[in-house]
Each structure stands twice: as C-alpha cells, then as structure tokens.
Specification:
alpha/beta, Aldehyde Dehydrogenase, Chain A, domain 1, Aldehyde Dehydrogenase, Chain A, domain 2, seven-stranded mixed sheet, about 45% helix, disordered N terminus, binds nicotinamide-adenine-dinucleotide
C-alpha cells in the first residue's frame, strides 16, 4: 500500500477525509491508463482472500450488529454468494473485456466498428445493513471487474461490520483504489453529493429518491437497488404445503429483513386458512423455538422492532386474524417470531408499506386474473414469486405483471444466479448488476468506428451533385 497523506497509520480512511479520498481516486482515474486484465484479476483475488480469511470475524460482527444473526445464515447468504460472484467474474473477465465487433452497414464500407468496455472512473457504493457484506461487496466485485476505483459507504445501523470492513479493505487496498467511508446519515448525504462517475445505492425507496436528487446535481448516473412489496402468487393448481414451505423459507430467513423476501402472499380465497396453518407449521419446523434460538435473527434496531409490533397490533385490534409462532415479548432481544396475518385492512401499514420483517399477510383472490390485477395495480415490485406447474398460468402471471426479477416455484433464488441481471423497476429501482450486467453497468461502453481504405461519404459531396442523388436513391430503396 502506498503511503497516503489522507490515510491513517493503518491505512484506514477517516471519514472527515471524504473529499480528499475522492479527489485522489478521481485524479488517479484520470491520470493512469485503464487497468489491464491481470491487475483486475489480482484485485478480485485480493478481495477473495480478504473474505475467506475473515469468515468468522465477519459473521461475528454481523451477529453482534443484529443482536443475533445465525453464523450459518451469514455464511450461506452473504459469504458464499460474494465468493461466487468473485469466482464468476474472474472466470469470465477475459471474455467480457475483449472488444466486441459490431456490424457496419454496406453504405459505410469499407470500415469496421467495435465497442470497448472502459472503466468509468470512481464508483460510489452506498450499502444497507440487512446483508451488509454481500450488498457492499457484490457491487464492489462488479466495479473492480470493470476496472474502477471505488468508495464504499456501509450502513451506520451495522457499525461493527462497517468498522471491520473499513479495516480489512484498508489492510489490502490502497485508498486510491478502494476506500471505505464510515458515518451516519450526514456522511451518507455528503457521500451521495460527491461527483462520482457512477453511484450505486442499495436501500429504501424513500432514501433512493434523495440519493438520485443529490446525484442529479452532478449528472452522476445512478443504479438504485430499492425495495417494495414483493408478492408471492400461489396458483390454484399448486400443492399448498409446497408453496407454504417455500414462502416460509424466503420470508423468515434473516427474520424477513431481506429485500426480495415475499412481502405478502396471494392465495385462492377458499385456501387462506389452510395456507396460513401450513406456513406456520413450516416455520415451526425450521425454528422450533425463537427466543433462545441462534438460527433465528433479531430485528436490527428498536425503531424497526417497534414499527413491526405496532403494525401487527393495529391490524389485530381492527379484527384481522393473527397467527404467531411464539409471543417472544419485550425481553426477547428484539426477536419477533414468524407471524401470519389475514383479513388486514387494505389501507393498513401492513398492506401498504414494505414490511421488512417476519410478518406475512395473506390476500385472498377469486380468480388468477384478480390476483394479477391486484399486483399490476400497485408499484412494480423488486421480486415476484409464482407457484404453479401449469405453464399457461405461469405465462399469464409473467405477461400480466412486472417486477425486477422472478422465481417460479421457489423464492429468492433468482438473486443467486450470477448469469442473471439483478435490479428493480419503477419504484423498486433502476439499473441492474451482477455478473456481465454489473460489469457492463459500471463500464463505459465506448463506440469506435474505423474508416477503411477510402471514405465513400466524403466523396459524395459537398458540393452535392449527381453522385449524391444516386447514392441517396439507392440507399433509400433497400
Ligand atoms: P436506508 O435507505 O435507510 O439506508 C441505506 C443506506 O443509505 C445507508 O448506508 C444509509 O447510511 C444511507 N442513507 C441514509 N440516508 C441517506 C441520505 N439522505 N442520502 C444518502 N444516503 C443515505 O435503507 P436500509 O434501512 O439500510 O435498508 C432497507 C431497505 O433497503 C429496504 O427498503 C430494502 O428493501 C432495501 N434493500 C434493497 C436491496 C436491493 O438489492 N434492491 C437490498 C437490500 C435492501
């Protein structure tokens, strides 16, 4: 690591040096030619080493931030996918970086055309707390694969992890290449107003609006990975128990604090009660106890804990049916057991706002068309789940709705495919990353056109004459 005036003795970046770090990265990105394949592979390899060498420290810090989060869950849902993204990028990078030849129309021959994927420069990444490793490092993998310099701002709601990440990155990367900036909302606001060459934000839709406003001042392009209410549609043909256990799996991992968790389930009206029981049975099998069970996550902070409890109590007091696994009470260390609700008022918070907790409302429908209309009438969700073995029902749901991504007959798994773009649409976000789509998103796709032995266009005129007239008629007639 180079000796950096703005860095402390151990290389960490103090948060008051935000502008200085940015300027250093920016100047370096303008001064030094784009990094080659070998340098990018080396950076990705270093990142892999950082994660593999610190698996248990990472899981421990995240668990402490949550109050409890299963080490296995962190390993399976954060460490393994991060390493997978690194492995995939390293394997594919040489092919992605090759210039891509493009077609040249007969009218412009002889000539050639191609595109080059070039680093944008300095990329900013703002990450949330719910999967703090994956959602900071997965965009970082794409940004490094694309040859960028990167500043990362982790969430202040996961402070132990943020400190750890800052230290680990500073031990392995020159702050001119990658730097982690720590701080609360004020630091985040200052961060989002830096004139990055691209800003990738993962978080809530409300904050996403502010980030986009701040970025607009600098004409900084943004990728917004936001949230929303992701529906799970259980079609009439699908075995209820199977759908219930998939939905319970996707909903109760990390106690529902997953951006693509099924937010609510749409179920045929005559199957609501049976479905609710099946979800609870599945939750009890996965988590026989809640309070002392290390496998079951706590809610990240008091504000979110209270928000979720209030939302459930409100619909209960209004007459909704609430099934709960175990009343963990106030001494549970901010744990809320798996909860299923039906009969909640359409205008309740539970039915209008992203839940982001272990509470699953069920909405009944008469026909599949009604379920599709329900989804299509609302904001476009980040994820959609459809359970059916009937291809025409699957096609009907896919054609009649829109969402960032879809898993059919399961939950969450589309996000784990490095070959698929991941992102939202409408209020659930804009722009997608992961794998080649992330590499491309964080590259400048630069067009190059090379004139061949002679330039027909320059021979046609001016002065415009017969030759130009003939060429114009010929080219328009094709
Ligand atoms: P959040 O929007 O409150 O915070 C996210 C980040 O933004 C944090 O680092 C925070 O410091 C920063 N921030 C806060 N105020 C800011 C401001 N005014 N300007 C700039 N940055 C600011 O979100 P959260 O509570 O950390 O995460 C939960 C939300 O994130 C949910 O809505 C969830 O659906 C969404 N999410 C989306 C994805 C995805 O991939 N689409 C993944 C995880 C979470």
């Amino acid at each position: 690591m180079s000796q950096d005036a703005e860095a402390t003795a151990d290389g960490a970046v103090p948060d008051h040096d935000l502008d200085a770090v940015f300027q250093r990265q920016r100047q370096a990105s303008r001064r030094i030619a784009a990094s080659d394949l070998e340098a990018r592979q080396e950076s990705l390899g270093r990142l892999r080493g950082m994660v593999t060498d610190n698996r248990s420290a990472i899981a421990e810090a995240i668990s402490q931030d949550f109050g409890n989060r299963s080490r296995d869950e962190t390993d399976m849902l954060e460490v393994v996918p991060t390493l997978g993204a690194i492995r995939y990028a390293r394997r594919k990078l040489a092919g992605w970086m090759k210039p891509q030849r493009r077609h040249v129309d007969l009218a412009f021959q002889p000539a050639s055309a191609w595109v080059r994927h070039e680093p944008l420069g300095v990329v900013g990444i703002i990450a949330p707390w719910n999967y703090p490793l994956l959602l900071a490092l997965s965009p970082l993998v794409d940004a490094l694969a694309a040859g960028n310099r990167v500043m990362v701002k982790p969430s202040e709601l996961a402070p132990r992890f943020a400190d750890l990440l800052q230290r680990l990155i500073a031990e392995r990367f020159d702050p001119e290449q990658v730097a982690v900036v720590i701080g609360g909302v004020e630091a985040a606001q200052r961060f989002s107003s830096l004139p990055f060459d691209h800003l990738l934000f993962t978080g809530s839709t409300a904050v996403g609006r502010k980030v986009m406003q701040a970025a607009a001042e600098n004409l900084t392009p943004v990728t917004l990975e936001l949230g929303g209410k992701s529906p799970a549609i259980v079609c009439p043909d699908y075995p209820l128990d199977k759908a219930a256990s998939s939905i319970a799996f996707g909903k109760f991992l990390n106690a529902g604090q997953t951006c693509i968790a099924p937010d609510y389930a749409l179920v045929p009206n005559d199957k609501i009660a049976a479905f609710a029981e099946a979800v609870m049975a599945s939750a009890r099998r996965a988590y026989p106890a809640i309070a002392g069970n290390d496998d079951y996550s706590a809610i990240i902070g008091d504000r979110h804990y209270q928000r979720l409890r209030d939302a459930v109590e409100t619909v209960r007091s209004e007459g909704a049916t609430v099934l709960s696994h175990e009343d963990t009470g106030a001494d549970s260390g901010r744990k809320i057991g798996p909860t299923v609700v039906f009969g909640a008022a359409p205008e309740s918070l539970l039915m209008t706002e992203e839940i982001f907790g272990p509470v699953l409302p069920i909405v009944g429908y008469d026909s599949l068309d009604d379920a599709i209309r329900y989804v299509a009438a609302r904001d476009r969700p980040l994820a959609l789940y459809c359970f059916s073995d009937d291809k025409s029902a699957q096609a009907k749901v896919l054609d009649g709705t829109m969402s960032g991504g879809v898993t059919l007959n399961g939950t969450l798994l589309h996000v784990a495919q490095d070959s698929l773009p991941f992102g939202g649409v409408g209020t659930s976000g804009m722009g997608a990353y992961h794998g080649f789509d992330g590499f491309r998103r964080l590259s400048h796709v630069r067009s190059v056109y090379k004139v061949g032995a002679f330039n027909v266009f320059e021979r046609l005129g001016p002065p415009w004459g017969k030759l130009a007239g003939m060429a114009s008629r010929l080219l328009s007639r094709r």
